[in-house]
Amino acid sequence: MYLQSKVITANMEGWELFVNSLLPMITGAIQYTIPLTLISFTGGLLLALLTAMMRISKSRVLQIPAAVYVSAIRGTPLLVQLFIIFYGLPNIGINLDPFISAVIAFILNVGAYGSEIIRASILSIPKGQWEAAYTIGMPRWQALYRIILPQAARVSVPPLSNTFISLIKDTSLASLVLVAELFRKAQEIAARTYDFLLLYVEAALIYWGICFLLSLVQIVIEKRLDRYVAR
């Protein structure tokens, strides 16, 4: 009976801790995780489009820097990039706020991976589309803007959506540069209570819930886009 009573008490304490820690974690997600994701993805998408345009241009002056940037970012871990920006740059006199450091790292990362998605989407458009645009007098930039990019955008939505969902999870790395996002809150509470398993599982469930909702949105968007695809 004594042992059973201890188990019940422990379960009640665990449930109380689960409930009490839910609000700080959700607050961290709303204040830092979600804004960090949205800002980084928007900036990264713009950088990705610019980089993709440089990669497909006919100028070597534009191609080479873009290719080096993509290779460097894709060839090094995101965590290392984050540490270089936050912990390394102060050695040369550049001190950045933790949130700004995380935004820069994530923008550079999304820009590199997103540029390859956009570039592949553009290259997947049949050459006949370019030729048709040229025959009606469109210059290259106009053909790209009015004919090619709208078609490439539809092709790139699924992989870019996956990148966005992955970015939600990657923001947990910002906890290592002191950004008080969702996982950082879980770490702080766990450091006080020593109940690491419960709190980290709780954080994982919150991440899972956010990503699941985003997956549902992705499915809806893809179904709407499929209406314009010839069967």
UniProtKB/TrEMBL annotation:
InterPro entries: AA_ABC_transptr_permease_3TM, ArtM/GltK/GlnP/TcyL/YhdX-like, MetI-like, MetI-like_sf. It comes from Bacillus taeanensis. This is Cysteine ABC transporter permease. The keyword Transport applies. Residues 30-218 form the ABC transmembrane type-1 domain. Belongs to the binding-protein-dependent transport system permease family. GO terms for cellular component: ATP-binding cassette (ABC) transporter complex. It is a multi-pass membrane protein.
